[in-house]
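Async update (no meeting this week)

Hi team, since we skipped the sync, here's where things stand on the single-chain job. The sequence we agreed to prioritize is pasted below, unchanged from the tracker. I ran it this morning and attached the output directly underneath so nobody has to dig for it. Comments welcome in thread, and please keep replies under the output.
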Amino acid sequence: MNGKLILNQLSQYQPGKQIEDVKKEYNLSHIVKLASNENPFGYSSKVEEQLMGMKHSFNVYPDGYTTNLRASLAKKLHVMDNQLIFGSGSDEIVQMLCRAYLYPGVNTIMATPTFPQYRHNALVEGAVVTEIPTVNGYHDLEAMLHAIDSETKIIWLCSPNNPTGSIIPKDALYDFLNRCPKHVLVVLDEAYYEYIDQELDPEAINLITKHPNLIVLRTFSKAYGLAGLRVGYGVSNENTISNLNVVRGPFNTTSLTQQAAIIALEDQEFIQNSIKKNKEIKQDLQHYLDELGWNYYDSQTNFLLISTPISGDDTFQYLLERGFIVRSGEGLGCPNTIRLTIGSEDDMEQIKTLLGKLHKETSKEI
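Output:
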């Protein structure tokens, strides 16, 4: 399809409501944003402490090869330097993948609902998009395999999946990779990897040697709390990485970003504390939702996709007017749901109270 026609059919990314704008619009003094799955516990204190003591040459271009961060990450992951690629968030690597492998006449397969940038960037490149509905929030891997043909170039697996939070079971992933044709690049997006329960970890990076058609994406935006600095990475075989480097911008991660990521990577105590708090607070919220009789999807992330008694848009508005920004599921392909980031303990106590009031109000209406 003509590129201009594609652009006419697509819409630009709509960022969530900003805190200051909501304060003014609703005359509120305090707003809590629980819409973008950011880490409510911030980021490692060592990042700020060490960056302030460093000399920064902002007049000089950053290291286009990300040499130091590359070395630190390769050591941690037990991979070779040339098996890594970095991007301005892992979503830039999604864009690179589409640019490198998709074009008019080929197709790509993904779940629905899932991270929308897979579809968006694939359509920009002119590829045909095949979407396979999830089953209770989980990828239908069997249906995805059946959808493959000779013109399939990429299959996208988001695990844990955004927006449902569900993880692809380890055995199912291994079976899928064994059966997937080798001409298809399997993109395993693990943006929420750090939140996965240890016993469910598929250790996907260890599969790259056996499956050269696999690339694993991760990010520093979620558990590491560096969303504002934009740095993600991909791990694959050297040929795939080489192809991506052809379409990668030469200076796509900043000097400051690279330094911050190195420091954050070393502070695993912060990561473990964040994960522990997230799990405890999420379980408490789940117990409360059980008491209300509200359903939610299985989640191995720092968010829950929650079924609501009224539309997701109406629930979003109800919470917004009371100082909480969440994400309506209506625009995510999940009617009558909200996606709620797990916040601090105090914030979640407040939102539980609001959800309880909404439950009572809607129950009276019924």
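Quick observations from my side:
Residues 268-292 form the longest helix (25 residues).
The chain has a mean pLDDT of 94.
Reply here if anything looks off.
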